[in-house]
Amino acid sequence: MIDLLGDQPVVDVLTGLLLLAGAAFTFIAGLGVLRLPDIMIRMHASTKAGTLGTGLILLAVAVSYGTLSEASRAIAAIIFLLITAPVAAHMIGRAAYRSGVPLWDRTVVDEFRDRRPLPAPTGDDSGVSLPAGSEHPAEVRTPAPKPPS
Amino acid sequence: MNTITHIIGSWSVGVAITLIVVAMILAFIRLVVGPSLPDRIVALDLITYLAVAFMGVFAVLSGHSAFLDVAIVVALLGFLATVAFARYVERSHARTSISEDRDD
After folding, report:
1. A71 and chain B in contact, CB less than 8 A
2. Are the beta carbons of A5 and B82 separated by less than 8 Å?
């Protein structure tokens, strides 16, 4: 019932351009996730380009249908993606950083370098990566039987 | 008269589907070879975004607006899965760290 192709040239060309832009951004996201060296840089490619690409494609859906119901659903999906994608990316990044995933060799700034576990072969090591409150009792509890020197 | 816009519309849909499928294959490669568990979680997150994008393109292609609802539900499920995986990684690492402290 909806003649998408051929009846309205402006809508068709705009839909095509938005689809191509969104697909290009999602392709860049996939390429970056495969090729970049580090999990933080891979998340940079994945979240930003993935969100922008998916948002452009949903905007193309809204432009293509042009009715209020489908456009409002597409824009609701875009807003949902824009709200939830940074939360998910932040949680993955924090979990990866605290669990001691090794960073890139040429990483410039790592401000918690001293409190981070070294990239051990087993993947984790002593409890220096605990949250800030529970770190000091572990250090106090261990040398407690010995006399302080 | 309408053939040019028709060609642009169908061509762009085909190219978009091809690019999304190639990106999904690349993300699957990262999912298989990812050295650590958070790498695989990032790849799964990207695959969810790509599935949402694919359903958007397919809603344009097929003319059924029900795929838009499917895309919203897949986005919600992907967010919940990512949050659950991230909490699993963080809590499992904290638990092993505490048990190693007790062993020492």
Report:
1. no
2. no
Q: What is the pTM of this model?
A: 0.78
Contacts of B98 in chain A (CB under 8 A): 127, 130, 138
Q: Judging by beta carbons within 10 Å of its beta carbon (0-12, 13-18, 19+), is residue A3 exposed, middle or buried?
A: exposed
Residue A74 has pLDDT above 90, yes or no: yes
Q: Answer whether B71 sits within 8 Å of A77, measured CB to CB.
A: yes
Mark the ranges of chain B whose per-residue pLDDT is less than 70: 1-9, 97-104
pLDDT of residue B19: 94
Distance between first and last Cα of chain B: 80
Answer whether residue A120 shows pLDDT above 70: no
Can you list the domains of chain B with their CATH numbers? 3-103 (1.10.287)
User: How far is A80 from A38, CA to CA, in rounded Å?
Assistant: 27
Rounded (10°) angle between helices B66-103 and A50-65: 160
Nearest to A70 among B5, B18, B68 (CB): B68
Between A and B, how many CB-CB pairs are < 8 A? 227
CA atoms within 13 A of residue A99's CA, in its CB half-sphere? 25
Rg value, chain A, Cα: 24
